[in-house]
Please model this.
Amino acid sequence: MPQFLPIAYFQKQFCPFAEATLSVATHALHYGTGAFGGMRGLPNPTDPSQILLFRLERHCQRLSQSARFLHFDLPASEIKTVLVEFIKQNRPQEPFYIRPLVYTSDLGIAPRLHDVEHDFAVYGLPLGDYLSPHGITCRISSWQRPSDLNLPLRGKITGCYINSSLAKTEARQSGFDEAIMLNAQGKVSEASGMNIFLVRQGQLITPGTDQDILEGITRDSVMQIARNLDIPVVERPVDRSELLIADEVFLCGTAARIAPVQQIENYVLSAERPLTQQLQTTLTAIVENRDAAYRDWVDVIALD
Model:
């Protein structure tokens, strides 16, 4: 069982993590009527009395937008206030992950979003590498990425992630680390919980927002970094066959950061990944607040 940070935010107050419990009749548990976020933080390598948070404002904005799909008005400013206080209450001493969650907290049995109560909760846990930063293996999933016509894919809605769970387990049980999902048009969409990039002839290519992807914050960060490094960035549909002949492929997300792909199905990709390594190095420096050009992406939280 994971070790969690000792303090949670639950039902509008901070409490010991073990006391932040739900009824088995909770509406969101039955119908997937919740939305979540995910953020990484770490003690400042040069001053452990400070915590560094990567793109806090953008994460709060996305969770606020996700809550709107649930008919829940939760301002980004309120989310930020709770997250900052959550960090001060827990005083983490190693890299960690924060999971804020909004959900329908009623105990009713009717699947609906009107006339139900909502809650906003936060918990966290220490977290190192979610996937190996040195290289992972992937398979093309038999599970299709849903369409935005079926589910609100621009929000991190809890019910949507049964699709990701099926794809991830299928991949792991067939000997791979991760799944790559195609959309209804047979084009590459994303991994089980990460966006995907490939490199061909010096261009950084990724499926666009019209390919049923989540608008990932790390994805957006990688594209901005690449453009600032004068690396051409192209958003367009990607065929599965392109992945097999790409010069480099990597996945990215808050938990995974940048994870190079070393094999897809039975195709082994090149071990030379100069562009991926450049982006990894730059992103790490930014997250650790060592790159002055991106200081506005890092919030510094003083614990004292």
Notes: The chain has a mean pLDDT of 96. The helical segments are 27-31, 56-69, 76-90, 161-173, 217-228, 240-245, 274-287. The first helix runs from residue 27 to 31. DSSP finds seven helices and 17 strands in the chain.
